[in-house]
Specification:
mainly alpha, 3-stranded antiparallel beta sheet, 3 strands, globular
């Protein structure tokens, strides 16, 4: 596990520094949103960075050798959530550990990236054969179905996109990709039509409402679109440079848009509304650039990986951070339907933070073992 002689000149200090910087910015923004979460998040950042550093020196091939065990544990813990999980707002997604709550679906993202990467490496010669793809689809479907049953449609879709990115980079046949697109487009149109029909069974009522709010926001302006519209108002009120951290004034008004309670779950799903209001357009762009740098560094490491599994793990972690950042910011700016995905490294949530930093730690080790 630690037998390799690494050359520190290959250590990606840029990636490490940017991740730590974004985590610390997250603590500042969480403190602005709700200071009661600050101490817990700060302790979590310190602990997670230590785990990141530890994993960056653990041979990722050693971790990959346990991919089947990790997959089994993933299924087991998701089943545990199903039967013994803690419910909130109509969903059962968490395990109560006493001192904190754990959201296993966040760990599923990293575990499935590792599992699919190893699977593709083991089936390099027959990856595009129908039986191999069917087997992979079935293995991926099990945890996805358990997550969607919680219900957690947003995480299910997020994980699906991440795995599709890994599979695409793994060498999926271009003809098969075109065929899937040709089939998917009309199926998606049929899906949108079906969920609007009475007594449809695919989605929960609130999930349908969120989708329809995005398609026709004016029809839901006083209900489900209200939160997103207030988020956009908060971001816009920051203008170019923002009002400053913990600043609670809008012109002559004594409370900020975000402090009025018009935007709920600010410390998690709508943390970007705090960013936009308090550091403005310039600060928001800087944060987005920092997140983009993390994704780009992951992809650079992927391009230099010494084997397929390393390349796919780095790609998967980059896709995880990229997709989730895009979705979270898209929701906060009303470009996408309202979902419940955190902004990587910034939103409050120790399970998400641990999964992401662990993923970065593994990616850093992939970079240490690059082939040139």
């Amino acid at each position: 596990m630690f037998r390799e002689k690494y050359q520190l000149k290959n250590y990606n200090w840029i990636l490490l520094a940017v991740v730590v910087a974004v985590c610390l910015l997250g603590v500042l923004f969480i403190n602005s949103a709700d200071s009661s979460y600050t101490k817990k998040q700060l302790v979590g950042v310190i602990a997670c960075v230590m785990i990141l550093l530890f994993l960056s020196f653990v041979n990722y091939n050693y971790i990959c050798s346990f991919s089947n065990i990790l997959y089994g544990l993933n299924i087991l813990i998701l089943l545990f959530v199903k039967f013994f999980g803690v419910g909130a707002n109509g969903a059962r997604r968490w395990l109560n550990l006493g001192f904190t709550r754990l959201q296993p679906s966040e760990f599923s993202k990293l575990i499935m990236i590792i599992f699919v990467a190893v699977f593709i490496q083991e089936h390099e010669d027959d990856f595009n054969e129908l039986k191999t793809l069917v087997k992979l689809a079935a293995l991926c479907a099990i945890p996805l179905l358990l997550i969607v049953a919680e219900p957690d449609l947003s995480t299910t879709l997020d994980l699906t996109f991440i795995l599709l990115a890994v599979i695409f980079v793994g060498g999926l046949n271009s003809k098969l990709i075109r065929t899937c697109i040709i089939i998917f487009v009309p199926l998606f149109a049929i899906f949108i039509w079906y969920i609007q029909t009475p007594n449809q069974v695919l989605l929960k009522d609130y999930q349908v409402t969120r989708i329809m709010t995005f398609i026709n926001p004016s029809a839901y302006a006083d209900t489900t679109a209200y939160q997103q519209e207030n988020s956009v108002m908060a971001i816009g009120s920051g203008q170019l440079y923002g009002k400053g951290l913990n600043n609670n004034t809008i012109s002559d008004v004594e409370v900020t848009v975000t402090d009025t309670g018009l935007v709920s779950e600010q410390q998690t799903d709508f943390i970007f509304s705090v960013v936009g209001e308090e550091v403005g357009f310039v600060g928001s762009v800087i944060l987005i650039v920092l997140l983009a740098v993390i994704v780009i560094q992951c992809l650079i490491i992927a391009s230099r990986a010494k084997n397929i599994s390393g390349r796919l793990i780095a790609t998967g972690v980059g896709a995880l951070i990229g997709f989730q950042s895009f979705i979270n910011i898209g929701v906060a700016t009303q470009l996408l339907p309202n979902t419940g995905l955190p902004l990587p490294f910034v939103s409050y949530g120790l399970t998400s933070l641990l999964s992401l930093t662990a993923g970065i730690g593994i990616v850093l080790n992939v970079g240490l073992q690059r082939h040139y």
